[in-house]
TrEMBL record:
Family: Belongs to the KdpC family.
UniProt superkingdom: Bacteria
Native organism: Paenibacillus timonensis
Lineage: Bacteria, Bacillati, Bacillota, Bacilli, Bacillales
Name of the protein described by the UniProt record: Potassium-transporting ATPase KdpC subunit
Coiled-coil stretches: none
Function in brief: Part of the high-affinity ATP-driven potassium transport (or Kdp) system, which catalyzes the hydrolysis of ATP coupled with the electrogenic transport of potassium into the cytoplasm. This subunit acts as a catalytic chaperone that increases the ATP-binding affinity of the ATP-hydrolyzing subunit KdpB by the formation of a transient KdpB/KdpC/ATP ternary complex.
The protein's assembly and partners: The system is composed of three essential subunits: KdpA, KdpB and KdpC.
Cellular location(s): Cell membrane
Keywords assigned by UniProt, alphabetized: ATP-binding, Cell membrane, Ion transport, Membrane, Nucleotide-binding, Potassium, Potassium transport, Transmembrane, Transmembrane helix, Transport
């Protein structure tokens, strides 16, 4: 009986230390050191309402906005992940063909041979908030025509929102679609 009480007390102490106190300390340090990231990198509109996160992609289908990557989970952050299909998988081939057809319809001024691959494929999480600068530039004709914003002004917005490589050599440059579209919306008003 004595061993049971020792085991229960040790378990309770470890649960409090590891399950509660540790998390509170980590949260406190994160809130003090980087509060924006600790709170989810939320993006607010002019009415101080949350409209998204810099970390999670959204679906933009209006021709006056830049479109993000394809999401096999419909941008549902509760179900992050994507099917790990081989390039020969019938579902993957159909989804890619559908994305190419949608591109042709939405962007008749840009030939398919100039279509950046990240606009017809999804990321590992299905929630990627960024596209390549090339993918953003490929959409300039459509967005310019729909909004009346000049191609030069849209190019400037893309450059402003292009994030470089981490530490100068890690990863690829990217453009946050939500933040870019917020600037497009402001320019139209």
């Amino acid at each position: 009986m004595r061993n049971i009480w020792i085991t229960l007390r040790a378990s309770l102490v470890l649960m409090v230390l590891c399950g509660l106190l540790y998390h509170l300390v980590v949260l406190g340090v994160a809130q003090a050191a980087m509060p924006d990231q600790a709170d989810g990198s939320l993006v607010y509109n002019e009415n101080n309402e949350v409209i998204g996160s810099k970390l999670i992609g959204q679906s933009f289908t209006d021709p006056g906005f830049f479109h993000g990557r394809v999401s096999s989970i419909d941008y549902d952050a509760g179900g992050s992940g994507t099917p790990n299909y081989a390039p020969s998988n019938a579902d993957m081939l159909q989804r890619t063909a559908d994305a190419v057809e949608a591109w042709k319809q939405d962007n008749p001024d840009v030939p398919v041979k100039e279509l950046p691959i990240d606009l017809i494929t999804n990321s590992g999480s299905g929630l990627d908030p960024e596209i390549s600068p090339e993918a953003a530039r490929a959409q300039i004709p459509r967005v310019s025509q729909a909004t009346g914003i000049s191609a030069e002004e849209l190019e400037g917005m893309i450059q402003e929102h292009t994030r470089g490589r981490e530490l100068g050599f890690l990863g690829e440059p990217g453009v946050n679609v939500l933040q870019l579209n917020i600037d497009v919306q402001k320019a139209v008003k």
